[in-house]
């Protein structure tokens, strides 16, 4: 089945890989990104040329997830062109790297905005259509850092991703009776093949950052990054995250996994998430809401 899909943050990294993979799987894919007529204009042109050469339906669309107006316009355009929207992939995100104390509260808020509030903007624009249809899929690209091992100097990112994951879990239950399915995809730490670390934000308080760099924590960056890289198998490929999302989308409705882990380093997130999701399911059974563990078939 051809699905109409919107994916956020699709100008690079997991987002771009996933947009390509979904389009090659036969779906109509709208790759959301900002500044399509400015900074990202070359990416838009490249995507258009690639789609033409490959014979796939891949389209860049202006979508600044920090702006409700931009998101509303993008989602409305997709629905106007097709009369439906089948899948939303929450992929947009940003990473920051440095000692937590050196980031200002405003920086924490900005990171939370990109990683968490962006999903709320997209949901408020897209979910009315999915509820009207009585069928849909929401895919959330989480992170093993929400419940796996947490090396130092990534606190703002870890906190934001944990917030996003918690929101995804809550939404899953609230949307199930509307016929809307949820899958949470959990990538591990891929140190190569994406721009996460290369484009990571730095703390604004340089004096505090320097104090940590010169103090007893001076070895954190070198040891932690080398350690993460050593844990990652030589054949770890971020494309596996995109392939996992394609597999979720292509799975029949009602049979999609609630959570999928792609964690070559095996940092423990799958074990902890397994227990947490089991506890959630047991509580829902105890309070009489077991039915919302699975989407209701309405159409």
Can you describe this structure?
By secondary structure, the protein is an alpha/beta fold. The chain has one domain (4-293): Rossmann fold, CATH 3.40.50.720. Helix content is 48%, strand content 12%. It is built from nine helices and seven strands; from the N terminus they run βαβαβαβαβαβαααβα. The chain has helices at residues 13-24, 41-54, 68-82, 105-133, 155-176, 206-214, 220-231, 239-250, 269-286; strands spanning 4-7, 28-33, 58-62, 87-90, 136-141, 180-187, 259-262. A seven-stranded parallel β-sheet has the order 3-2-1-4-5-6-7, with helices on both faces. Helix 5 links the parallel strand 5 (136-141) and strand 6. Helix 1 packs across helix 8, helix 3 (68-82) runs parallel beside helix 4 (105-133) and helix 4 (105-133) packs parallel to helix 5 (155-176). The longest helix has 29 residues, at 105-133. The protein is globular, with a radius of gyration of 19 Å.
């Amino acid at each position: 089945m051809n699905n109409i899909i919107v994916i956020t943050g699709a100008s690079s990294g997991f987002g771009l890989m996933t947009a390509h993979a979904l389009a090659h799987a036969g779906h109509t894919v709208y790759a959301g990104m900002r500044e399509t007529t400015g900074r990202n204009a070359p990416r838009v042109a490249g995507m258009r040329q690639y789609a033409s050469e490959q014979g796939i339906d891949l389209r860049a669309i202006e979508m600044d997830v920090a702006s409700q107006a931009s998101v509303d316009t993008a989602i409305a355009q997709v629905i106007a062109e097709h009369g439906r929207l089948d899948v939303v992939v929450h992929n947009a995100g940003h990473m920051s790297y440095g000692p937590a104390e050196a980031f200002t509260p405003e920086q924490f808020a900005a990171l939370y905005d990109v990683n968490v509030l962006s999903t709320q903007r997209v949901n408020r624009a897209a979910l009315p259509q999915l509820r009207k249809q009585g069928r849909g899929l929401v895919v959330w690209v989480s992170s093993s850092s929400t419940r796996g091992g947490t090396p130092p100097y990534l606190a703002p990112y870890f906190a934001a991703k944990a917030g996003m994951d918690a929101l995804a879990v809550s939404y899953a239950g609230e949307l199930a009776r509307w016929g809307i399915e949820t899958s949470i995809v959990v990538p591990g730490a891929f140190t190569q093949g994406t721009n996460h670390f290369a484009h990571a934000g730095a703390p604004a308080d340089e004096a505090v950052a320097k104090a940590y760099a010169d103090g007893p924590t001076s070895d954190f960056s070198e040891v932690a990054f080398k350690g993460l890289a050593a844990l990652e198998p030589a054949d770890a490929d971020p494309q596996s995250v995109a392939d996992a999302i394609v597999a979720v989308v292509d799975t029949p409705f009602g049979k999609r996994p609630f959570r999928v882990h792609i964690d070559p380093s095996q940092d423990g997130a799958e074990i902890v998430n397994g227990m947490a999701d089991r506890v959630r399911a047991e509580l829902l059974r105890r309070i009489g809401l077991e039915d919302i563990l699975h989407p209701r078939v309405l159409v």
